[in-house]
Amino acid sequence: MAQPKSVTYRWGVVALLFFATSINYLDRQVIGLLKPTLEIEFHWTETDYGHIVMAFQAAYALGLLAFGSIIDKLGTKVGYTISIIFWSLSAVLTAAVKTTFGFIAVRAALGLGESGNFPAAIKTVAEWFPKRERALATGIFNSGANIGAVVAPVMVPWILGVYSWQMAFIITGAIGFVWLIFWRIFYETPAKHKKISAEEFEFINSDTAEATAAGVPETKIKWLELFGIRQTWAFVAGKLLTDPIWYFFLFWLPSYFATTFNLDLKKPSLPLVLVYTATTVGSIGGGYLSSWFIKRGMPIFRARKTAMLLFALCVLPIFAARYATNIWQAVALISLAAAAHQAWSANIFTTASDMFPKQAVSSVVGIGSMAGSVGGIFFPLLISYILEVNKEAGHITAGYNIIFSICACAYLAAWLIMHLLTPTMKPVQLRGKDV
């Protein structure tokens, strides 16, 4: 007797995206945890480390712009394959680096490869889910960023203690190749997949059916045409102002806890585990909240914007981190802000698939994420400058206080700009020929 075809295969696809995103953030988090060790071995200054982070962000930004278009042309299966091979190989090769310039080069290669993750993942969600489920699906796979960041503070110090910093890069980098086996075996687009039922296929394409019934044609879009659309710039603004804050949480939090509260990064770090565990709750909960608003009858655009405003307000208390007298007060404030960021992220990514047709989603995500990475290029320079100046003056903590104040305001500013550009997030209809 034949087995019945699944009606929930799309959630298995989300699981694949979740693990890929976990690996993506595990690989990029390693260097932040090894920073104290590498600073001693390679005699890094804060400026040296800032340049390494900047190289990653610059390559990540360029890669996002390229990968968005590539994935729209080649498809998610091939695009994701190219991306993870490139970034996993770069992560492993970091173990062979002997100079500071070598770290700059190999981290740039890592950034280029890792840039394919989110354009591919968001397009996959758009292909496999109707709009009413996309925020939740995005929140689930996006929580992989937090799992990777939770695992890293436990895994990397253990590898460092038992083996060496080189093995930390080799072991974490090799995990991507294991994931690739499962991706090649189990993934295909819904139209080509043999394991989903007609019922699930119909549900996945319900938005397309509704659009067709309303007389909205499915057209391809010229890539350059995307830059002339207000909805593109709304997404760009939201990413530009908020992505750099997340990069700060990833690359500088370990150092902040070490310098401010004497946290030993050669041991598993409970404060970091708690911060990134909170972000997992934020990512899934943030995706669920806007989906819940939609189920309660709220229009899609209002549900997204209401949820994002709440999350922006939740970041404001991080301003008070400057008054923290012990590490656990700081952990509580930073955990709330980091969780709010991931909740915001789950929803802002979904706005791209709300406003743009599936054929253009990866390109738009690539453009907006590139803007976020450009912010991530310049923000490390500002962070490095602030920390160096205050370190020379003997006020290390004061530098972080300034940075936390910037973090507190970024999300409200982003929300206001997005609202001004797209008050109702009207779906885009274009007459292009090619993305």
TrEMBL record:
Residues 13-426 form the Major facilitator superfamily (MFS) profile domain. It is a multi-pass membrane protein. Pfam families: MFS_1. It comes from the Bacteria. It is found in: Membrane. The chain crosses the membrane at residues 52-71, 78-97, 165-187, 232-253, 273-294, 306-324, 361-387, 399-421. The keyword Oxidoreductase does not apply. The keyword Mitochondrion does not apply. Keywords: Membrane, Transmembrane, Transmembrane helix. PROSITE patterns: MFS. PANTHER family: HEXURONATE TRANSPORTER (PTHR11662:SF285), SOLUTE CARRIER FAMILY 17 (PTHR11662). This is MFS transporter. It comes from Mucilaginibacter gilvus.
